[in-house]
């Protein structure tokens, strides 16, 4: 069995470990690193997975999943560099960081697969995009896709598209949460109790997402089906267009893409 070590057991790291267990992996085939002892003890008690040091993870694991914050990558790579073995597969979950960074800093020929997941991994509904580095084979990509399928859906994209993926689906849940927050506030403004407004909007979001995921109709058709002539919805849509909501979303996602590019460029000369 392949041994998987998750380096960095934050929310995404923990969600991956939990998903792998629910997907049939044995706790004995999983490891994790965590710099806070209290957090490490909590996760071991919850999942039965051993907490280890980075050096031990590098020696024992076949797959090393790097799930630290992008700004914390340098010390992790410094520690991994002399320890990564020739048979190890490195999987990066760090936004904006290219596979070339890992390939420069780790031993020659190390296979690297870049992944952009998102936080619905916490409820096994992640959307993850994977891109192989120059030394990763189709077999390496299959390993990563099988691992991530335990926590949601997976698509393979060229690495040149990863910054766009980061902006669209990586940050995407935050856009929906922002919209839901605003709609709940609108319900309160119109006189509804907060709890009622929240229930109305959250269930509407769940239902709309299910229609998108399980149906075959384009979002435009689904929106038009709710929009009656001279009705309430078309008046609301007119105001959204008048206030430039569509343009604001386009600009926001472009800004997220640009920040992802910036994060990668910060390591170009490492």
From TrEMBL:
InterPro entries associated with the record: 6-PGluconate_DH-like_C_sf, NAD(P)-bd_dom_sf, P5C_Rdtase_cat_N, P5CR-like_CS, P5CR_dimer, Pyrroline-COOH_reductase
Organism domain of life: Bacteria
Catalytic reaction list: L-proline + NAD(+) = (S)-1-pyrroline-5-carboxylate + NADH + 2 H(+); L-proline + NADP(+) = (S)-1-pyrroline-5-carboxylate + NADPH + 2 H(+)
Molecular function terms from GO: pyrroline-5-carboxylate reductase activity
Major subcellular location class: cytoplasm
Enzyme class: oxidoreductase
GO CC annotation terms, alphabetical: cytoplasm
UniProt keywords, alphabetically: Amino-acid biosynthesis, Cytoplasm, NADP, Oxidoreductase, Proline biosynthesis
Pfam families: F420_oxidored (PF03807), P5CR_dimer (PF14748)
Pathway assigned to this chain's UniProt record: Amino-acid biosynthesis; L-proline biosynthesis; L-proline from L-glutamate 5-semialdehyde: step 1/1
Entry EC no(s): 1.5.1.2
GO BP terms in the entry: L-proline biosynthetic process
Compartments where located: Cytoplasm
Function: Catalyzes the reduction of 1-pyrroline-5-carboxylate (PCA) to L-proline.
Family assignment from sequence similarity: Belongs to the pyrroline-5-carboxylate reductase family.
PANTHER family: PYRROLINE-5-CARBOXYLATE REDUCTASE, PYRROLINE-5-CARBOXYLATE REDUCTASE 3
Protein name (record): Pyrroline-5-carboxylate reductase
Organism, as annotated: Prauserella muralis
């Amino acid at each position: 069995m392949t041994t998987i070590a998750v380096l960095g057991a934050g929310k995404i790291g923990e969600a991956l470990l939990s998903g792998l267990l629910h997907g049939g992996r044995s706790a004995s085939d999983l490891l994790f690193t965590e710099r806070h002892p209290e957090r490490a003890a909590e996760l071991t008690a919850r999942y039965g997975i051993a907490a280890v040091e980075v050096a031990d993870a590098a020696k024992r694991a076949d797959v090393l999943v790097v799930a630290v914050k992008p700004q914390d990558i340098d010390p992790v790579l410094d520690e991994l560099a002399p320890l990564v073995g020739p048979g190890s597969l490195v999987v990066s979950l760090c936004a904006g960081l290219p596979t070339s960074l890992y390939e420069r800093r780790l031993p020659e020929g190390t296979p690297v697969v870049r992944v952009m997941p998102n936080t619905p991994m916490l409820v096994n509904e992640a959307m993850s995009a994977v891109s192989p580095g120059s030394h990763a084979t189709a077999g390496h990509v299959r390993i990563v896709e099988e691992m991530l399928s335990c926590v949601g859906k997976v698509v393979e994209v060229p690495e040149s598209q990863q910054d766009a993926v980061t902006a669209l689906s990586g940050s995407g849940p935050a856009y929906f949460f922002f919209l839901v927050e605003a709609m709940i506030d609108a319900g309160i403004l119109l006189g509804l109790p907060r709890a009622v407004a929240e229930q109305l909007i959250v269930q509407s979001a769940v239902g709309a997402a299910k229609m998108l995921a399980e149906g075959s109709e384009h979002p435009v058709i689904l929106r038009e089906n709710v929009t009656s002539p001279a009705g309430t919805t078309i008046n609301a849509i007119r105001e959204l267009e008048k206030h430039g909501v569509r343009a604001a979303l386009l600009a926001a996602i472009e800004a997220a893409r640009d920040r992802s590019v910036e994060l990668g460029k910060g390591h170009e000369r490492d």
